[in-house]
Amino acid sequence: MPSTVTAGGAMNQSRVSQLAVPVSERDHVDGAVDAPVTLVEYGDYGCPYCEDAYRAVKAVRGSMQGSVRFVFRHFPLTSLHPHAQRAAEAAEAAAAQGKFWEMHDLLFEHSDSLSEESLFEYATAIDLDTDRFGRELDDGTYVDRVHEDLISGTQSGVIGTPTFFIDGERYDEQWDADTLRAALEDAL
Questions:
Q1: Owning domain of residue 135
Q2: Is the pTM of this model over 0.85?
Q3: Which contacts (CB < 8 Å, 24+ apart) does range 29-34 have?
Q4: CA 157 to CA 16: how far, in whole Å?
Q5: How many CB atoms lie under 10 A from the CB of residue 169?
Q6: What is the tally of structural domains in the chain?
Q7: Residues 62, 31 contacting (CB under 8 angstroms)
Q8: Could you tell me where the DSSP H helices lie in the chain?
Q9: What CATH number did the domain enclosing 182 receive?
Q10: pLDDT tens across 20-39, in order?
Q11: CA angle (75 as vertex; 72, 80 as ends), nearest 5
């Protein structure tokens, strides 16, 4: 949580509950642009909780098509998940070839296997140009893009993953499929 110093010099913990950076064309969006509800997730491909959230969100996305647009932003917690940064960069390299969601799904479905070799296996599985993919990873082409998501999450008060926002408001309740679906239906 962001900290501020009060007039007396004491630290005051403030909780950010708003999405600081609005959804824009730079985001990875699944669903209709004009969907009545937007669900934003800050996630980490190496996080087991995010893997569980992935399954819940996937179920919700399937049952609420047309009503909800889903936005995924990277928040790699590299001190806990050493392969998370590289996996996020791999997702961005896939996005550059029009296959973000395919890579996103593979990364979460195999979150226990995010080695360099595995990333190339996933790139091959979704038919990416693996030479380009490897070159962009080696050059660090998407380091800044991932960092921008991390900064936007920090500005929004994200300190762990997964963290969700529904229509710009932080959602701190359970994120199993039924509870998340109910919250999204309430937002409708």
A1: 3-187
A2: yes
A3: 29/69, 29/70, 29/71, 30/61, 30/69, 30/70, 30/71, 30/72, 30/101, 31/61, 31/65, 31/66, 31/68, 31/69, 31/70, 32/66, 32/69, 33/69
A4: 5
A5: 12
A6: 1
A7: no
A8: 48-63, 84-95, 100-109, 116-125, 130-139, 143-155, 177-187
A9: 3.40.30.10
A10: 999 999 999 999 889 999 99
A11: 135
Task: Give the DSSP H or E segment for 72.
Answer: strand 68-74
Amino acid identity of residue 34, one-letter, is: D
CA distance 71 to 40: 5
Q: Six-digit token pair at 82?
A: 């050493």
Are residues 74 and 1 in contact, defined by beta-carbon separation less than 8 angstroms? no
Identify the CA nearest to 73 among candidates 96, 49, 52, 50. Answer: 50
Give residue-wise pLDDT tens across range 141-183: 999 999 999 999 999 999 999 999 999 999 999 989 999 999 9
3-class SS letters over 122-176: HHHHCCCCHHHHHHHHHHCCCHHHHHHHHHHHHHCCCCCCCEEEECCEEECCCCC
State how far the Cα of 180 lies from the Cα of 166, in Å rounded to an integer: 10
Given this model, what pLDDT does residue 3 score?
30
